[in-house]
Amino acid sequence: xxxxxxxxxxxxxxxxxxxxxxxxxxxxxxxxxxxxxxxxxxxxxxxxxxxxxxxxxxxxxxxxxxxxxxxxxxxxxxxxxxxxxxxxxxxxxxxxxxxxxxxxxxxxxxxxxxxxxxxxxxxxxxxxxxxxxxxxxxxxxxxxxxxxxxxxxxxxxxxx
Length: 160
Known about the structure:
This protein is mainly α.
């Protein structure tokens, strides 16, 4: 009888461990989803804030548009403004890329961001800026911009 109760206790203890592990797996999945959701929401909020600020500031929008077309046509102050706007945008993109590489952003969401990122680099002003500033970014992000993306870039941005 004592052996039977001991075996029953061992069995119930084993079941308890399994139930606890299943509960922890469920909690971990829920937490992972929460972290991913928060990361993505933060990235979207950052980009939305940048876009909203540009929409409200006619001068900033003009500087960004002119600089994207021809950065060298900007006077010294506007060039600095352009450079600051671009670095803010590209840093946000680097953050998105980091989150994608670390599975905080899903493949479908990333495809849209990748297209947006790449479209910036179709403009001559962004390409010129990148050539001067590229070393300020992580090697992984540089590889993405210069070689890994599925969107074709003009030859002048590609490095060997």
